[in-house]
Amino acid sequence: MCDRKARLTLWDDLIHCADRFRSEPWAVLGDFNVTRYGDEHSASRRVTKAMQDFNSAITKAELEDMRGAGFHFTWSNMRVGSEAVSKKLDRALDNWWWFKMVGDSYAMYHPPGISDHSPVSIQMRDGQPYRGRPFKFLNFWIENDRFLSIVKQVWDTALSGSSLVVIHKKLKWLKGQLRGLCTRPDSKVNELISRLHSVQDVLRCGVSDPTVADKEKHLRIEVGQAARMKEAFFKQKSRI
């Protein structure tokens, strides 16, 4: 969507959707590949024709930026020093009915992680309560040296009740023991992402230390590798 004709077609589609849902609460979010205002570009405050077209479409669609939190710039060319450029290309827009009926919501612009874009999500105050997840036996548990001893300890424990009740109690206890048997791959991913986000927060504050930029580069690589391990783990888990 780099040429004006393609953008205008998209803006027409946006206006068409707005006309269809004019009396309903609705929102649209993602990468629009264009900024709205001069302060949304780190290297230039010039208002371009593309920006004017975008703002005109937003006005016709009767949309407005949702209240936001997190990163101001949502895209970067991933360079450092004088070559670094950041822009706000991703955003969340809502109409008046959304504001009226779902007013207590906001757009969260998350750290980019290994991407050049910051993910954007809509945050609601009233979330659905967590109801837990079903237990699944993971094959890699049997490779752990503690697996047999944990099973033996649980099964050798004397519990009161009928045979069926005792088996139920032991299985429930065993599930809890197995879940804590070892560190899952996604735990490592979360730890690395947290470290990466911390470094990116430092860079966002204007720190131009080459060692910090180099640390971010290496953390991006580590996160990518760990994410592939996590993906393989959940593929195996989903087949159980």
Structural class: alpha+beta
Q: What number of structural domains do the residues give? A: 3
N to C succession of SSEs? HEHEEEEEHEEHHHH
Anisotropy-based shape: elongated
Total beta strand runs: 8
- Record the strand order, biggest sheet: 1-6-2
What is the H level of CATH, i.e. the homologous superfamily of the largest domain?
A: Endonuclease/exonuclease/phosphatase
* Name of the level-1 CATH class of the largest domain: Alpha Beta
- Average pLDDT, to the nearest integer? 84
**Biggest beta-sheet profile:** 3 strands, antiparallel
What do you see in this structure?
This protein is of the alpha+beta class and 240 residues long. The protein has three domains: 4-124, Endonuclease/exonuclease/phosphatase (Deoxyribonuclease I, Chain A); 139-181, no CATH class; 185-238. 46% of the residues lie in helices and 13% in strands. The protein is built from seven helices and eight strands. The strands form three sheets. The chain has a three-stranded antiparallel sheet with strand order 1-6-2. Strands 3-7-8 form a three-stranded mixed sheet, with no helix packed on it. It has a two-stranded antiparallel sheet with strand order 4-5. Helix 4 packs antiparallel against helix 5. The longest helix is centred in the last third of the chain and has 29 residues, at 210-238. The chain is elongated. The mean pLDDT is 84.
